[in-house]
Amino acid sequence: MRAVRLAVAALLLASCAGPTVSAGQYRAKVTQTAKAMSSIIVTAQHAARLDLDGKLLHTVTDSVVSDAEQDAGSVRTTIESRQPPDNASDRLRHQVEQPLQQATALLTDLRVAVRDNDDNAQRAAADALGGPLDAFQQLSGVSG
Asked: Which of 6, 48, 53, 115 could form a disulfide with 126 if both were Cys (CB 3.0 to 4.6 A apart)?
């Protein structure tokens, strides 16, 4: 878990450097965002599922999911602070906006479910994170 958090932190730091002045740079920032969000979601889902299977201490699950929620908020803030340099980049911004909103809301739902010990809500939120995860996995190849 610590290695995943360090990788996410490295991606966040890389995405915070300097202004975005070209379409290529903006695509690269969206790719970094998508990769970071994919890691965050997979980590939260894995912790939630291990918890549901009785293979992870509930306090650890709470910590991992809470950290994932905070990390997702940071990633979202970082990309939203970027001004798209052209129309194509603006369209790309719209593509990443919905899964970002959806993922951050679902991570909040997951945290609440974990803290409420609501297994059904926890399972539903972890499963629902698959939608934004698919979107981020597709977006992670935009600058390829």
From this structure: 48
